[in-house]
Design a protein that fits this description.
Helix content is 75%, strand content 0%. It is mainly alpha-helical. It starts with a helix and ends with a helix. 57% of the residues are buried.
Amino acid sequence: MPLSLTDLLTFALFLGAVIFVSLRAARGRMTAEGYFLAGRNLGGWAIGMSLVATNISTEHFVGMSGAAATGVGLAIASYEWTAAAALVVIGWFLLPRYLRSGVFTMPEFLERRYDRGARTILAALLTAATVFVAMATVLYAGAVALNAIFSLPEGFAALFGLSPEAAELAATLTGVWGIGLLSSIYTIYGGLRAVVWSDMIQGIVILAGGAIVLWIGFDALGGDGGVLAGAARFLDENRDRLHTILPTDHPEVPWTAVFIGGLWIAQFFYWGVNQFITQRTLGARSLAEGQRGILFAAWLKILVPFLICFPGILAVQLYGPQISHPDQAYPVLLRELLPPALRGILLAALAGAVMSSFNSMLNSASTMYALDVHPRLFGRGRRTGGDRTPVRVAKVASALFVIAACLWAPLIGGFPGVFRYIQTVWGFVTPGICAVFFAGIVSTRIPAFAARWGLVAGIPIYAALRLLWPETAFLHHMGISFLLLVAGLAAAARWRPRLDPAPAPRPPANVDLTPLPGVGWKGAVTLLAIASIYFVFP
C-alpha cells in the first residue's frame, strides 16, 4: 500500500503538532518535582487520558487484536475489563496512601515500609523490565504494524534491491530506531509534563482512529444494509468468538485466572505499582483530581476492547485466508478496508499509540534510575525539590535506555506473538513485587530482609513453575508464585517480626488530600458496568 503525499503530510503535521505542544508545555526551569511529577499539578482528565494512552499501543492493536482473532476471542478483553475494576480499587484505597506519603516513585514508597535495599532491588527490577520488556515490545510491535499496513518491506526491496528477508529486517530496524528517536526528543527535554501533553493529543487520536476502523469494518460487513446491518451480522455470525468465560483448562485465559487467580495480580501490579502508570497519579494536584482521572481511565478501559478486539474478529470474518499469523489480523483489516484519504490519519493514530506508550515508559525508567538507583550506586543525584542534578542524570539515562531498547526490540520477533511475550515475561517479576508490596501494606510485622528476598525469589519460583507445568496458563503460574511468596513473607513475620514502626508519611504541602465527592458510589457504578458485560457476553 504505497503512501501518497497526502498521507505523508498528514503524518508529518500530526507529529510536528505533538512535538511542538509537548515542548511548549515543558518550557521553563525544570526542578526535580517539575520534571518527574509535572509540578504535582495534573488535572483529572489529563491523568485519565494519559493513563489510557500510555497503556494502549501496537501490542494491543497487533497482539490483543490477534489474540481475539484466534480461539481466545473476546475473552482476551478480560485484560482490559479487569484493569478497569483494578483502577477503581486503586482509586479507593491505594492512591490516598501514595499521595499522603509524598513520594516520587514506587521504590521510594517501598523504602518507607522496609528499607533502602528493598527500594534499590525494586527499582532495578522495574527499570530493567521497563526497558527490555515494555519499551522494546512497543518499538517492535510498532515497526511490525507499520510494515504490514504500509508494505514497507516491499518498498525497501524495490528501492534498494534487497531480498525479502533483508528488506523485512531493514524496514523493522528503521521503524524501531525511527520511533525510538522521535519519541525521545520531547520526553528527554520536557519530562512528565511533556509526556502528559503528548498523551492527551495521541490518546484522542488513538480512540478516534479505533472507532473509525470499527465503523468502516461494520459498514463493509453490512453491505447495502450499512453499519447497523454489519454490526448485527457480526454479533450473529461470531457467537463462538464472543464468549468472555473460557474453561478452566484453557491455556491462556481460563475463567479461574480471570476471576480468582493470576490476572488480578498482573492488574494490581500494572496499575497500582508499575512506575510508568502510577507516575501520572503521583503528579495529581489533589486526591480528588487523581481519583477523577482514575475513574475516567476505568471507563475508557471498558470501551477499549470493542475498538480493538472486535476489529480482530472482523478481520477473520472478512479476510481470513489472508491471515497467516494472528498478529496480522488488524493490519490486514486496515490494509484492505482503509480508504486512501484516511491512511495518514491511521498512520498518525498508530504512531500516537506507539509514541505515547514509549515516552511514558522512558520517562518512568529514567525517573527510577535517577532517584532510586543512581544515588545508591554513586552517592550523588539525591532528590530535593529544587535540585537539578537528578534531572541531568535522568536525561543521560534516558538516552542510554533508548539505545538499549532499540537494540533489544528486533529479538522479540523470535517469540510467538508480542502480546504473549510481554505478558509472559512480566510474570517473572510481577508475583514477587505484588507479594512484597501488598503484604507490606496489610501487615507491619514483615521484616525488611524478607522483602528483599521476596522480590528476588519470585523470579526462580515462576521459572520453575513454567518448566514443570508448561501446559498450564502462565496466569496460574503467577497466582501460585504469589501465594508461595506471601506464605514465605508470613512465615518470616512470625519468625522474626519487625517491631519498629515505619516512618510517618510526609504529605506534600501543595496537594489537597480531600477525596473526590461520591467516589464510593461512582466506583461502584463502574464495577457494575463491568459485571454487566460478562452477563451480556458470557
